[in-house]
Structures are given as C-alpha cells and as structure tokens.
Amino acid sequence: MFKEIDARGLSCPMPILKAKEIIENQNPTSIKVIVDNQAASQNVWKFLKSQGFDSVIESSGNDFAIIGKKQEESICDCETETKKESNNKISVMITSDKIGHGDDGLGSKLMVNFIKTLKEIGTDLWSVIFVNSGVKLTTEGSEVLSDLSLLKEKNRCNILVCGTCLNHFNLLDKKKIGETTNMLDIITTLQLSDKI
Q1: Cα(13)–Cα(179) distance, rounded to whole angstroms?
Q2: CA angle in degrees (0–180, nearest 5) for 162-145-55
Q3: Whole-model pTM?
Q4: Residues 71-128: tens digit of each pLDDT
Q5: Statement to judge: residues 148 and 111 lie in one domain
C-alpha cells in the first residue's frame, strides 16, 4: 500500500509525527512525504530510515519529496544495541553558544571550557544535544569542533543537532559535525537517558 503525505507548511516535528501515525496505523509498504524545507526533508528521511524504509529525497523548486520503500528485512539498529550496553547514559543539552548572562565574552569562554571538559565524563556520556543558538558550536569556524570530534570518536558519544535551529540561523550547509535531528528524536533521547 502506498501513502502520500503533504506536510508543507508544517513546523518540526509535525511532518514526522504525521508519517509516524500513518506507518503505525496503516503499515504502508511505500510512502511519500512532501515538505517545504531542507531541514524537514533530512529529518523525515532519517525517520523513515529508522522505520525500515529505503528512502531518497527529490527536490523540486522549494519542495522536497521523501520517497520511502519498506525493506524486506529490517536493518539491525546498532545504535539501540549500543544504548542498551551502556550502564549509565548521560545526555547533555546545550541551548546556547554561551553560558550564563552578562558578559558575552566570558559566556563564550565558559562554554568552550565546558565542552572541552565533557570528555571527563568518559563513556557514560551518551549524547550531546544542540538546540537554539547552541547549534552554532557545531558549524564552520567553531572553536570546539575538534573537541566534539574527539567526543564522537573516543567516547562514542552521539552529537545531535536541531535541524529547525540550523535552518533558522541559515547554518544547514555550514554544519561540520553531528547528526541533524528533530524534536521527536531529541525527546526520545532524553527519555532514554539515565541522567540529563
């Protein structure tokens, strides 16, 4: 069964929630979701992939069509297995590119030092989530790109970056590290965490 969803004009995470509802209630073998921004297209593509769909994104003008076909066999969710292995999953949410209010220069230095020190948590650090102006720390020119890369490679930490926020700041094409994600994934990550 084929289902088509027109999610143009809907803000994150509504396109994903509409697709989720169709998949759970109607179990289509193929699905097409139409959105009107790149961040939403990436989020829907990622969601369909997590649901066992082979998906492609086709763009036409300002619209993006994410077309997914159900795989014969579900691919192993290795990330989920890794999550289950961890005894203590700690997630950190970064909502700004600075810490505190008052002196922006000091706030920026504090944030850089904070991120550089996150590695001390060790392998219990499961995910670092960037939202609002915090997404700027994952983009071209950020002082902490090498530190985030170290967290990802050595600590096996998930770096999640809000796609709506990147889109708001016109930074989608300047992101250098992390997985562009959506509010549904962020909520799920927080829900599965032992400590935040």
Answers
A1: 16
A2: 45
A3: 0.66
A4: 875 444 444 444 444 468 899 999 999 999 989 999 999 999 999 999 888 889 999 9
A5: yes
